[in-house]
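SUBJECT: A protein chain and its fold
Encoding: whole-number codes for local backbone shapes
Chain under study, with its fold:
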Amino acid sequence: MGKAPATPHHLTLTDFVIYGIVPCMTISSSPSKEQFLADLLERYGIDDSRGIEALGLIKTVSNLLDTIVAERMRSHNVSGPRWRMLLRLFLEEERGSSAGLSPSTLSQFQHVSKNTISTLLRRLEDQGLVQRHLDSHDRRRFVIRLTPQGRDLVHSTVPEHAEYLNHLLLGLSPDEYSAMVDGLKKLRQTLQLHAGDCHKAR
């Protein structure tokens, strides 16, 4: 089967899904953009666009949240990805584990490559927020732990961060919030099943 022709904007349907352009266009009030989307879906013979719209919208919301968090944490001289790493280490300690986490575990949690994790860790080390320690079970490996400064940073910012996240949801009524959470939980279960199938196929 030949490759489908490119759209007038030189984007394939896959590009629209990956970059979250479809939901942005869907919620726009511009008739021309809505018509462009309709023409694009018709070009590919797609009658049901719920998957594209819903999952694309979730990706767009996730990207927007990352941008907001990064901006909020800028005053603490910590990027969004570095903040999430500190928070992950902090939560691990709160669960009663003081052993630390390996870079591989942090890489899986952040969904980034080991090279990216190494860069993030190096920056956090330079800031005095984390330290590397030899793994007590395997002296060839090392684990990452919070320093007192890193722990204090997370401890002092978590309440403010949680309050701001609540603020972002003020536009939803209690019923809308409940429906959203229930729907996302069901979607998560479905995606986890598919993710498990993908791992089995490797």
